[in-house]
Design goal:
32% helix, eight-stranded mixed beta sheet, four-stranded mixed beta sheet
């Protein structure tokens, strides 16, 4: 299907207001806590702040509209993955700390489901598990090693297990399946319904959300902003940043997080025969053991969505609406969908979209708060933020209020990122890494042997193994 015949807005926005429904503040604002960013991180932080301290006044400032960024554009994977993997976390912080983080992240998946039920948020949450498929003998060996490593670190067969080719094929009709790993604690959901439902929930708790407000500077006790109503100032004892891939627009933060684009496609609703061919009976979210990240789900209305992170990094940490669509990458996803599920040949692609992720230099997410200045932030999820943002928001709320819990001692707390390199080094390095990843998959498909290019890419990111 030609690219210009599919909608370029996210599929998820079909069920929510895809624009501003709230006004900017009429004048200056004062609150106990001001949060910049009305995505998952900012809203989860507001939610837990109000539950921990109901009398607290909390204001959220959003430049566009609730869920405009990655929170309303992602693949709908609610899973407990640390971006560089559990083994890397254990290598750096020890097995006990790594497992504490893993259990907290798994709890966050259940917490998203619990809050959705409690707040009446019908975000199509279904705990079907995560299926990482092996589509070659090399990938099957990688899957077995992955599961064995996670068991050695402390996860059990109830948490994650290896599936034989026959077991995996009973779950999905994906082509070429040689095996898989299956993690039980993972859910598929509709992210825009979740983020908009969460916004309504925090407003019921007394939080004020302003849209169309561009923060121009964050300082101790103060956020300056611009809106259609003019310049203004928000004052607060605590100022929290939850801007993820858009952090680069704030003074002094140009090299803190870079925006890397991830792109997606969605099919039209499928008939019963094609749904049966796809499988995924419990809406298991799926990917494979290739080096270039892909991710997909079967939606509640019977579509298949597929995403991938092959889009180039744009010079100067560029973000433009035009970058949401990339003819080369979207065409690749179209072909890959049929390669994975041959029965979907000829199915109409209804939506093609994209958006930027927030990526720190070391690919390690962080939750940080400085009690002296009252400044805090959370993010850097590298695309794994649906569940981690819940854990981050809950933790940031506890840090802000000075509460000590098991979460406030996790190894990502108070982690400081170093800056990305200046241009053009950043542009050259990031896109070279993308090339290495793509070429590693091609080389392994051709030779059947592990590619040294993948090892170089992992070394650049600081991933163990």
């Amino acid at each position: 299907m030609p690219l210009d015949q599919a909608k370029t807005s996210p599929l998820w926005w079909e069920e929510v207001p895809a624009g501003r429904t709230r006004t900017p503040p009429p004048a200056d604002v004062a609150a106990d806590v001001v949060i910049v960013g009305a995505g998952f991180t900012g809203l989860w932080t507001a939610y837990y702040l109000k539950h921990l301290e109901p009398t607290l006044s909390v204001v959220v400032l959003e430049r566009e509209h609730v869920g405009f960024g990655a929170s309303g554009r992602n693949g709908g994977w609610c899973h407990p993955e640390y971006p560089l993997g559990l083994a890397t976390l254990a290598h750096r912080h020890g097995r006990e700390s790594a497992m504490a983080f893993q259990r907290a992240a798994m709890n966050a998946v259940h917490e998203v489901g619990r809050v959705s039920d409690e707040e009446g948020i019908d975000c199509h949450f279904e705990m079907g598990g995560r299926l990482l498929l092996a589509r070659s003998e090399l990938q099957a060996a990688r899957a077995r090693e992955d599961v064995a490593e996670q068991h050695a670190l402390g996860l059990t067969a109830e948490d994650v297990r290896y599936l034989s080719a026959d077991e995996a094929r009973r779950l999905t009709g994906m082509s070429g399946v040689q095996g898989a790993s299956f993690m039980a604690c993972a859910a598929a959901l509709q992210p825009a319904l979740l983020v908009n439902g969460l916004a309504a929930a925090v407003e019921r708790l007394g939080v004020t959300i302003y849209e169309g407000v561009e923060a121009t500077a964050l300082m101790a006790g103060t956020v300056t902003f611009e809106s259609a109503r003019g310049s203004g100032t928000a004052t607060a004892g605590s100022v929290l940043r939850a801007t993820e891939g858009y952090t680069r627009d704030l003074p002094g933060e140009r090299r803190t997080l870079i925006p890397l684009y991830s792109l997606m496609i969605a099919t039209e609703p499928l008939d019963e025969a094609r749904l049966a061919a796809v499988g995924l009976p419990h809406r298991e979210v799926f990917a494979d053991y290739g080096h270039m990240v892909i991710y997909g789900q079967r939606t509640a209305d019977g579509r298949v969505t597929l995403g991938g992170r092959g889009a180039p990094y744009h010079f100067g940490s560029g973000i433009q609406a035009d970058f949401d669509a990339d003819e080369v990458v979207h065409a690749h996803l179209d072909r890959l969908l049929v390669e994975l599920f041959p029965d979907l040949f000829g199915v109409r692609i209804s939506h093609r979209w994209g958006g930027p992720l927030g990526v720190p230099r070391d690919w390690r997410p962080s939750v940080s708060y400085d009690t002296a200045s009252g400044l805090g932030f959370a993010g850097g999820y590298v695309g794994d933020g649906v569940a981690l943002s819940n854990l981050a928001g809950r933790t940031l709320a506890e840090l802000t209020l000075g509460r000590e819990t098991g979460r406030t001692g996790l190894p990502w707390v108070q982690h400081r990122w170093r800056d990305w390199e200046p241009e053009p080094l950043r542009y050259l390095g990031v896109n070279a890494g993308l090339w290495l990843t793509r070429s590693a998959d091609r080389a392994e498909a051709r030779t059947g042997r592990p590619s040294v290019r993948a090892k170089i890419g992992n070394w650049i990111r600081g991933k163990r193994g």
